[in-house]
Write a structure and sequence with these properties.
Protein name: EGFL6 protein
CATH topology: Jelly Rolls
Number of helices: 0
InterPro entries: ConA-like_dom_sf, MAM_dom, MAM_domain-containing
Oligomer: single chain
CATH class: Mainly Beta
Number of domains: 1
Helix content: under 10%
Organism: Cnemophilus loriae
Shape: globular
Order of helices and strands: EEEEEEEEEEE
Strand content: over 45%
Length: about 150
């Protein structure tokens, strides 16, 4: 497995230069490192911020599971989407409201076929809300299919 966490991971993360705002580091409550977040008040409604994970060393023709923690805290905070580089048109994962402020786990299967997925993009879309944040943390890639809960 590959640890792509922000504070101590080994992965290559890039802010998208063509979006409306950047994701920013935010301190964890427990004090051990940080996660990446977009506060609700940044930008205007429907503005986008994209954070890209570059996957340069994935072996072709094998499958992976991307596991990550996410949080959508606050009313009408917006949307969090995940795109794979070879499927630019539609997100492979999307969440648009949190039931509460708790962290949840997202899982995405990445199948390496004829085309290699060379990046994963976390996209935050600004909602109407003025409080809260969208956060992503503990990003890990494991070889093979996603485990059942």
């Amino acid at each position: 497995s590959v640890d792509c966490s922000f504070s101590r991971g080994v992965c290559d993360w890039k802010q998208d230069a063509d979006d409306d705002f950047d994701w920013n580091p935010a301190d964890r409550d427990r004090g051990d490192g940080y996660y990446m977040a977009v506060p609700a008040f940044v930008g205007h409604k429907n503005d986008m911020g994209r954070l890209k994970l570059l996957l340069t060393d994935l072996k072709p023709k094998s499958s992976y599971c991307l596991i990550f923690s996410y949080r959508l805290a606050g009313e009408k905070v917006g949307k969090l989407r995940v795109f794979l580089a070879n499927k630019k048109t539609a997100p492979v994962w999307e969440e648009n409201k949190g039931k509460d402020e708790k962290w949840r786990t997202g899982k995405i299967e990445i199948f390496q076929g004829a085309e290699t997925t060379n990046s994963v993009t976390f996209e935050s879309e600004r909602g109407k809300g003025k409080t809260g944040e969208i956060g992503v943390d503990n990003v890990v890639l494991i070889s093979g299919p996603c485990p059942e809960d």
